[in-house]
Design brief:
- The chain is an alpha/beta fold and 280 residues long.
- The protein has 2 domains: 59 residues, no CATH class; 207 residues, no CATH class.
- Helices cover 22% and strands 23% of the residues.
- The protein is built from 7 helices and 15 strands.
- The strands form 5 sheets. A 7-stranded mixed sheet has the order 3-4-9-10-14-11-12, with no helix packed on it. It has a two-stranded parallel ribbon with strand order 1-2.
- The longest helix is centred in the first third of the chain and has 19 residues.
- It starts with 9 loop residues before the first strand and ends in a 6-residue tail after the last strand.
- InterPro entries: Metallo-depent_PP-like (IPR029052), UPF0046_metallophosphoest (IPR051693).
């Protein structure tokens, strides 16, 4: 399916349902499944290796698919446009799925920027904007209070990821995981966002208002449902040609691109976003 899409570059990140791509998780499953036969354990190991071979192998490369491991990635297109992507498949522990971390664990910030009560486990922390400009962030899960509300109204995104996003301030942060959160919003960061994203406070203090001073405004992108059904997508143009270009470093377009709705039916439209990129 991805191979049939007319695009020069197709980037893929795993998520909590992609169990076979999380080798550590599969290994733990095999250890804990004492009732499984040796044959079943062997099959699980083979399936895990086969999944990674498919996404990282020649077949994927030949159709322009790049599987993103957690960390930083740089790309250059034939047009000369270049951009940097930070990717992570990890989400806060939920129902024993793949790529998990505990709610009190910070996977995205250096220890110097972690919340005071967080256990820092970051192997590939997101750098500050001043250190290494990130154009695009692709994570499976959402940051806290950004398109992360469940059908019960709870915000279940990651507070540590929000802190990291505020530090990095990419042009685009794309995620999914919370199906009900489908949508997009244009976030303008406050002038003192750097200070806010480094101030010492607990996770509870951060979630109950500590982060708010770092966000000047958040404007939800309106969706024309009739047009969306006709075009089978939602188009957002924030390039210079639109007259409402995104301010690099000052704004981030947040997109919850979950195709599945809350009933696990693939009915949500895709988002097609136009942004300016630096040219080498």
């Amino acid at each position: 399916m991805l191979g049939s899409i007319d695009a020069e570059l197709k980037l893929v990140v795993a998520g909590n349902h992609d169990v076979s791509l999380d080798e550590a998780f599969c290994a733990e499953l095999r250890k804990s499944a004492l009732s499984r036969s040796t044959h079943e354990d062997s099959y699980a190991a083979v399936a895990s290796q086969a999944a990674r071979t498919m996404w990282l192998g020649k077949r994927a490369r030949d159709v322009g698919v790049t599987y993103l491991e957690e960390g930083m990635h740089q790309f250059k297109l034939r047009s000369g446009a270049k951009f940097t992507v930070y990717a992570s498949p990890y989400t806060s522990f939920f129902c024993d799925w793949a790529f998990p971390y505990a709610a009190h664990e910070d996977r995205f910030n250096p220890s110097s920027a972690s919340l005071s009560d967080a256990d820092n486990i970051a192997h590939n922390p997101i750098p500050d904007r001043s250190d290494n400009v990130i154009d695009i962030m692709v994570t499976h899960g959402p940051p806290f209070d950004r398109l992360d509300r469940t059908d019960t109204g709870d915000s279940v995104g990651c507070p540590h990821l929000l802190r990291a996003t505020m530090r990095a301030r990419p042009r685009l942060h794309c995620f999914g995981h919370i199906h009900e959160g489908w949508g997009a919003e244009r976030v303008r960061w406050a002038a003192d966002a750097d200070e806010v994203s480094h101030v010492a406070q607990s996770t509870q203090e951060w979630k109950t208002g500590g982060y708010e001073r770092g966000i000047e405004s958040a404007e939800r992108i309106s969706v024309n449902r009739e047009k969306m059904l006709t075009e089978r997508a939602v188009f957002v143009d924030l390039s210079k040609r639109s007259g409402v270009a995104l301010e690099a470093g000052g704004e981030t377009l947040m997109v919850n691109a979950a195709i599945m709705d809350v009933q696990y039916s693939p009915t949500n439209a895709a988002w097609v976003v136009s942004l300016d990129s630096p040219v080498s």
